[in-house]
Design a protein that fits this description.
The chain is 59% helix and 8% strand. The chain is mainly α. It has a two-stranded antiparallel sheet with strand order 1-2. A hairpin with a 2-residue loop joins strand 1 and strand 2. The protein is globular and about 65 Å long. The N and C termini lie far apart (46 Å). 16% of the residues are buried.
Length: 185
């Protein structure tokens, strides 16, 4: 059975597996011919998730363009998905985004020029600066939420809402200990 069929079958059984605490060993892929020796490089779950996220984000950007936000790039999404509504320091944004502070600073500069965010004094430390959404940035954020909702709806229509929910639950469980996207308390 090919890896794609295995993934589909696993996803069909996912709801039952997600509620179980029993550990299920991962089967090693059997190679069928010399041509298949490297198939694992293309059919592994990480690669499949990466391909899916590219498709999903491309669709979100397309919807954003249709809503009038033609200058939106994935890098801007990377900043804004990590930015807390009350504001976040650049160092924390860089950490959450797995970027250098300098690269995040440049990204913040771009978003300032676009009118999405502004730098303001940090209320907890007057020497530090916090990045926060502008009014236009909050409107952009609302359009982004709608674009994500639309892309998720389309994804659910294509693969089935129960499967999409299983994927959501499984990924949330898998990533829970390493979630750098949650606001700092």
């Amino acid at each position: 059975m090919g890896i794609k069929k295995e993934v589909v079958q696993l996803l069909r059984r996912a709801p039952a597996r997600l509620t179980s605490t029993k550990q299920v060993p991962v089967k090693m892929r059997a190679t069928k011919s010399p041509r298949d020796v490297d198939s694992w490089r293309h059919d592994n779950v990480g690669r499949l998730m990466n391909s899916a996220i590219r498709r999903f984000e491309a669709r979100v950007l397309e919807i954003m363009k249709d809503a009038g936000y033609r200058d939106t790039r994935i890098s801007h999404v990377n900043l804004t998905r990590n930015l807390d509504r009350p504001g976040t320091r650049v160092t924390e944004l860089a950490k959450r985004s797995a970027m250098t502070k300098q690269a995040m600073g440049e990204l913040v500069d771009q978003c300032v020029l676009m009118g999405l965010v502004e730098r303001v004094p940090d209320p907890a430390d007057g020497r530090a600066r916090t990045v926060r959404f502008t009014k236009a940035g909050l409107e952009w954020l609302d359009a982004f939420r709608k674009a994500v909702d639309q892309a998720e709806l389309e994804m659910g229509d294509e693969i089935g809402q129960p499967r999409l929910e299983s994927i959501r639950v499984g990924l949330a469980k898998y990533a829970a200990r390493h979630d750098s996207l949650r606001p700092v308390d």
